[in-house]
């Protein structure tokens, strides 16, 4: 059974930083691409934030380019999202997602596995 568990969320002032972690188990890590998504509130659609493919290539949403960075840890089962210069509009529940494919896209329903989420709240 594949399990993804996020951590690292919290409250931070605008301009601050947080690093989210996602620990995975139950799958062959190197065969999966990964992504971070967020949902900014009830009724809002889930939005793709960052993608990392099996070859290490990355993609970012325009709204976070230059501020967020996705990476894999030295321990193969860990995924990170470094978030710098956080803004009020970054307030959301953040989810990691995994899919058994070399390359991932922005369509959430394509992902096979999801974590439960970690809340990020940015205040002024």
Give the key terms.
single chain; 124 residues; mainly beta; 7-stranded mixed sheet; 4-stranded antiparallel sheet; 0% helix; globular
Secondary structure: elements and pairs:
Blueprint lengths: L2 E5 L2 E4 L4 E8 L7 E7 L7 E6 L5 E3 L7 E5 L5 E6 L8 E8 L13 E2 L3 E6 L1
Number of strands: 11
Q: Report the mean per-residue pLDDT as an integer.
A: 94
Beta-strand portion reads over 45%
Question: SS-based structural class?
Answer: mainly beta
Helix content: under 10%
> What is the helix/strand order?
EEEEEEEEEEE
Distance between the termini: 41 Å
Per DSSP, the total helix count is 0
Radius of gyration equals 13 Å
Uncertain regions spanning at least 5 consecutive residues: none
What coarse outline follows from CA principal-axis ratios? globular
Largest sheet: 7 strands, mixed
Would you give an account of this structure?
The structure is a single chain. The protein is mostly beta strands and 124 residues long. It has no helices and 11 strands. It has strands at 3-7, 10-13, 18-25, 33-39, 47-52, 58-60, 68-72, 78-83, 92-99, 113-114, 118-123. Strands 2, 4, 5, 6, 9, 10 and 11 form a 7-stranded mixed sheet that branches. Strands 1-3-8-7 form a 4-stranded antiparallel sheet, with no helix packed on it. The protein is globular. The mean pLDDT is 94.
